[in-house]
Amino acid sequence: MNDNQRQEELQNNQVEENVNTTTNKKSGGNTALIVILIVVGVVIGFYILMWPIIRSSIQTQWVKPILYLYPEEDIDVKVKFGNEKVLKTTYPKYDKEWNVHVKSDGSIIDKNGRNYYALYWDEDNDLDEDFKNGFYVKSDDSIKFLEEKLNEIGLTEREANEFIMYWLPIMQENGNNLVRFEFTKEREKENKLIIEPKPDSMLRVGIIIKKVDKKVKIKEQKLEHFDRVGFSVVEWGGTIIK
Question: Which residue in 133, 162, 177, 237 has the fewest CB atoms around it within 10 Å?
């Protein structure tokens, strides 16, 4: 083999080596891209499958709302929700609506003749409270705070007693709390109440509670006062922000 043949052979080997190197690089790049696409697909699939669980873990719940009905005379009343899909527990059982007979003293009688003093439900909601205003309440001040604010809002002593008996243990167990009250306009946006005959006056009030570890400065919330006129309806409930 002469020098020209040797040089030609070396050139051919070099070309072949370059081709193999380029092919390997392309193959490696394609493999990496495929791996990335598989990983992205797995992640997306995981979140699609797990979203109901993730959503339920961050979703808040409107707890212990009860509805008092105070007609001026004995009447039949229908109560419906604008968004009944969010309802969880109801008592008496809610079946597309509540259809009850209500006496002038506020006692409620269902179609089976069973008596109730209020209608009860709880519901899921997506409340995202940033506490732009409200109150900072220490555990030892909880009773005084609730008594004063509920009286200012316009709850009767019986309504306030039931409200306090439910929410006081939660506030005291938390220690220190941020508290804000939500009223009719906000509640109607979340889940409208449709009542027939239409009430002359309606109060929907709820307490929003968040545990805090230290004192927080917050702009004090101005509370609305409820005046009862004619056929009156009162709801109270609340939620806990984690």
Answer: 133
